[in-house]
Amino acid sequence: MTNRQGEIIWYELMTSDADRAAAFYDAVVGWQVGAPPPGGPDYRMIVAPDGNAGGMLQLDAAMLQAGASPTWLAYFGVDDVDASVAGIVAAGGKVLVPAWDAAGVGRIAMVTDPQGVPFYVMRGATEGATSSVYQRHGLGHVGWNELLAPDAEAALGFYHRQFGLTRMGGMPMGEMGEYSFIGHDGGAPIGAIMPCPPEAKPGWGFYFRVDDVDAARGRVEAAGGMVVMAPMDVPGGERALQAVDPDGTVFGLVSGVEA
């Protein structure tokens, strides 16, 4: 694995209805969601115009009974999954699914940060392989990662210590606090951490890049989703919106070119 420790190397949608979700995101983002493999879990590849952008997992009855629910999750690439899990637990996080080896894929564990936000850690099985699912300007890819945290300062410290994410300036939001930009070791920002508003659910959220956010608003509504934050200008010359898919899962869209 050649991605640096702490880079996001995969995105996954857990859904209660993979066929419906595939049709929705194909229409809204322009993906091509593959067919489920024969036998085993229903796991489908999400394909952007230039290659894989993530995966889609159909939640089965056992997963739902165990407490799983529709959501988007990120995989943080690490050099040693077991050591990373131990460090996360020592810092106050929890293990949701203990580390396991997925044949031909890699070693994976599902955990939470100390504030209960879930994510995966993973070491890929193929040495030298590099993930490009995150692309700041790649059409159909996640172009921004945003964490809503009950305690944003504590979250900044945790993700810095565990994954090398560093605060790279910020934008004041009045009584809500600061929108803190984050990146790896002085590189370009990949997202932000902000205090979680009272009406929102803490967690990682992701903005997918589309050709035109204003046009995509109509596609969201026509495909059975709902826009919860209308298209708006964001710092840097881009436009963004937030919506929920037919499962009620929150996601974002972004378009435009940074100034």
Automatic annotation (TrEMBL):
PROSITE patterns xrefs: VOC
Coiled coil: none
Domain VOC: 7-124, 138-256
Pfam families tied to this protein: Glyoxalase
Protein name: VOC domain-containing protein
